[in-house]
What we know:
36% helix; Alpha-Beta Plaits; 5 helices
Amino acid sequence: MGIEGIHRKTCQRWNLPWDAHELTFSCYQRRAFLSKDRTRQYLADAINQARDRLRFHVWAYAMMPEHVHLIIWPAKEDYSISKILQAVKQPVSRRAIGWLKTTNSPGLRLLATGRYDRPHQFWQDGGGYDRNIRNGKALTDIFNYIHNNPVNRGLASRPEDWLWSSAPDWAGLADGPILIDKQTCLNSMG
């Protein structure tokens, strides 16, 4: 089958003013590149920097070993989820691949693509999953799903025990590595 016969899923994005977004994106070939605190911190740093530059609020997140869940609310009317994702994902790729090259890590081979134009890749191609959130019930359901994901996978006993999610922050136990904008989230729920 030639390349013309390959179907590639596309992600439809609706950049609607004042909608929150549930975003999910995965590591290359769904490998567990986010299983180390170092790469999780790279991601936290990238999200915090992108939020300041592109003006969006983070309401919830969970970093899983091979994918990420994120609920954001763009704080300006004119925004692009594609640009937000690029601002979050690109620095993580650069830092992770750079670290693997600098340390001459054998782990670099796990990111190998076999392509000349891009020999290593951290994130799966494509935009991942993007769902607009327009009501409090949907938001609550998504929060519960995201925060329970580490428990369902056996990474933690309770949602608030997984430090790489917003669950401890929402439970009032600890501030996580990503600032949570609780007030705008609570205001949106009515």
